[in-house]
Design a protein that fits this description.
alpha+beta
Length: 341
Amino acid sequence: MAKGSIVVVGAGIIGASLAYHLAGRGRPVTLIDAGLPGSGATRASFAWIGRPLVSDLPSAPLRYLALDEYRRLETELPELSIQWSGSISWDGFDEAPGHRTDEVRTLEPHLLNPPAVAVHRPEDAALDPIATTDLLVAAARNRGARLLTGALATALDHQAGTVNGVQTTAGHIPAETVVLAAGTGTTALCSGIGITLPIEPSPAVLVRLRATPRLVRTIIATPSLEVRQLTDGTVLAPTAYRGETDQAALLETARRVRDRFAASFAGAGDTAIRSAEIGWRPMPADGEPIIGRPAGTRGLYVTVMHSAITLAAAAGRLAATEILTGLPAPELNGCRPDRFH
């Protein structure tokens, strides 16, 4: 085992951010995943980046950093492409704090039947989660990290209260520190060494549509339609999971989303379905991130959270600093795994 070696399990956007922030600090870093980077829940994310104006959540100090940390990443990684488009919301979403605007038609000129007033959050943004994950992984590798794909983590090596590696389908990987960024897979890996973390899969459907570019200018959020559009015309539209169990059911859901979109925007009549998929997001029992070292176990660090895209830049930097220095980050105090015990 190389001195100070770190293995990050899971190459979604959280694991990629951790690998990037851990690499290049004199510690061998290995990032492993059963598939390609970003191929799990990250791939099916709407990837809306925002932060609360006011929050009493335990994770609020972390969430307040979200946008600033992405601005930092932009300076460090010039290839990072973030759409700083802002967001507008209404019909239930408008109860959130934010600037009220009556200029919805100016912000969204193709929107049919715009509301008289909406909440406008000009600081909100979005990104391509796969491209961002790939960029972070590439930057981590440039800093000396190793990427191992096709390696499903099956168990943690655990002796006398210390985790000292991980068993995978590609063989055993020793490490002084194992960092779990494995989403819903974290539960089974932890339970194998007697640690209980209440994490449930929270499914959501992401529909991709092909439409005329520039129909949607911002991120739009309403109870009936949530959409944003990429520069190539692709429309991303998340919708609630209703128990779909096959492709036919997913296609029917996608048709409903397409029809709502076509009825909401001028010039959207020829919109076509590109794809629909289910993202199985990890959801801690209380909805708050789980970040830190479980009590009573050495060599293990856990990172599980909903809003992973929003929090990836901030959580990756803060968690990496804790792992490398051993000093706690105050912004993560409300996210500790020991709150469940």
